[in-house]
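Lab channel / #folding
Pinned by the channel admin:
"Please post every new chain as: sequence first, then the structure tokens as a reply. Keep commentary short and put observations after the output so the thread stays searchable."

First post following the new format, from NK:
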Amino acid sequence: MIKYIEETTEFLQKKGFENPEIGIILGTGLGQLINEIEVIKEVSYNHIPNFPTATVEFHKGKLIYGKLGGKNVIVMQGRFHLYEGYSLQDVTYPVRIMHKLGIKTLLVSNASGAVNLNFKKGELMLIDDHINLQGGSPLAFKGVEQLGSRFTDMSAPYDVDINTKLESIAKDNNINLHKGVYASVVGPQLETRAEYRYLKIIGADAVGMSTVPEVIVANHLDLSVAAVSVLTDECDPDNLKPINIDEIIEMAGKAEPEMILLFKELIKSL
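Reply from TO:
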């Protein structure tokens, strides 16, 4: 993997991805932040050596370098998931590349379902902690200790100072920002009624199919991390209706401007 990381990093450096400070991963239906960026360079994933390729139709599949809030940023417009058939090492490979290029902070967004029924679709949730239900670890491979500590501490995977700033920005802008626990499952099937009840019992406030692997690797690399979920549906097991993916994407789009405002204001303050 070290050889692959060096090859990919060298390719992107030659393309002009120079001295980035912040990495951003944009989740399902959450690509409009790109419109706020002064784009300097962009490369399709399928042109980057050793990079996976996004296969989900609403994930664009581009790595973008530019300026936002006076900072050099790298943005993943489209991410990778276990349910696409990738390994956890594939899913998290871009985080390792962004770190090798120089980022110190990683910001993550996702679309998720509200398990906590006090949270409503169209609202945002700041991730305070997570539960890994993906059945594996992106650090469970031979030679991982050459890239960072094998036994990575996860007592506080989300940066407390950054989360405090995000809560303050939300308050100043009248954004209803919940705080809670995100559970990450494999997917791609949605949850059963019994599974939603189980998630509630174990302490999850929201559920999705991403984010946790990237956050684990970011902690492995000593990056500061923050993540925001856009709540796109309400997961009430007693009143569960068939899921409509188009409605989920539409709801993500409606809530996205608030997430963009949070990220923009945060980046200015970092």
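NK: The CA atoms of residues 51 and 94 lie 7 Å apart.
TO: also worth noting, The chain has a mean pLDDT of 93.
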